[in-house]
Amino acid sequence: MTTRLVICDDQGMVRAGFRSLLEAEPDLEVVGEASNGQEAIDIVTRLQPDVTLMDIRMPVLDGLAATRRLVEAGVATHVLVLTTFDLDEYVFEALRAGASGFLLKDAPAEELAAAIRVVAAGDSLLAPGVTRRVIDAFVRRADPATRTHDVRLAQLTPRELEVLGLLARGLSNLDIGARLFVSEGTTKTHVSNVLTKLGLRDRVQAVIFAYENGVVVPGAEDQSLG
C-alpha cells in the first residue's frame, strides 16, 4: 500500500531534497508540494494526502496556522511537523493545533521514512529528546499557581493515571508495560481507556493534557526521555 505525501516548505531545495529521499522508498509517493501555508491548505485539501510534511516558518501563512485550519476543516491527512531545535515553542503550539507529531529536519532519511509510516498508520510520533525541550519551554511560560485540574481526570483509575504520567514522559507501550509489570497488550488497553475517557485523539494530545494539568512536572523523572 502506497502512502501519499505532500511536502510543505518555503525552500525549493529542501522540498527537492525531501522528494528525492522519499521517492526512493517503494511505498512512499510525493503527490504535491507547497511553498507557503495558504498553498499548503489548498493543495492538501484538494489532494487529501495520507501525510503532510509541514514546515513551521513559511510566508503568507505559517505552518502552525495552516495545520490548525486543516484540522478544523476535518481534512483527512496526518500532519508531521518538520522543525529545528530553535522552533521548540512553535512545535508545541503545532501539536496543540492538531499535528500528529514532529521530527527534526536533519533526521536521517530512514528515520524520516519510518516517521511517515508511523504517522500514516494513525499513530502519533514524539521524538523524546525534542519532546522534553518542547514541554519544558511550555511549562516555563505557564504559572503553576494558575493551572487547574481538568475534571476529566477524576474519571481515570489510579493505574490509568499512572499510565498517563508514563506516556507523557515519552515511554512506549512496551516500556510502560515493563515499568508496571504488565503485558504490552494490557498497556495498550490502558492507553486506549485513557484517551477515550479524556476525549483525546492521540498520544500527542495526552502529553499536552498531562503537562497542562500538572500530572507530570519536568524534573528528575524526565531523564528517562533521553
Sheet with the most strands, sense and barrel status: 5 strands, parallel
Low-pLDDT residue intervals, each spanning 5 or more residues = 220-226
- Helicity range of the residues? 40-55%
- How many domains would you count in the coordinates? 2
* C-alpha geometry: globular
By secondary-structure content and strand pairing, the structural class works out as alpha/beta
Q: Provide the CATH topology of the largest domain.
A: Rossmann fold
Number of strands: 5
**Beta-strand share of residues:** 5-15%
C-alpha end-to-end distance: 33 Å
- Figure out the total of helices: 10
CATH C-level class of the largest domain is Alpha Beta
What would CATH call the architecture of the largest domain? 3-Layer(aba) Sandwich
Using only C-alpha atoms, the radius of gyration works out to 18 Å
CATH superfamily of the largest domain: Response regulator
Order of helices and strands: EHEHEHEHEHHHHHH
How would you write the strand order of the largest sheet? 2-1-3-4-5
- Oligomeric assembly: single chain
Overall average residue pLDDT: 83
Description:
This protein is α/β, with parallel strands linked by helices and 226 residues long. It folds into 2 domains: 3-137, Response regulator (Rossmann fold); 143-220, Arc Repressor Mutant, subunit A. It has helices at 12-22, 37-47, 63-72, 88-97, 109-120, 128-141, 158-168, 173-180, 184-198, 203-212, and strands spanning 3-8, 28-34, 51-55, 78-83, 101-104. The chain has a 5-stranded parallel β-sheet, sandwiched between helices. The two termini are 33 Å apart. Residues 220-226 have low confidence and may be disordered.
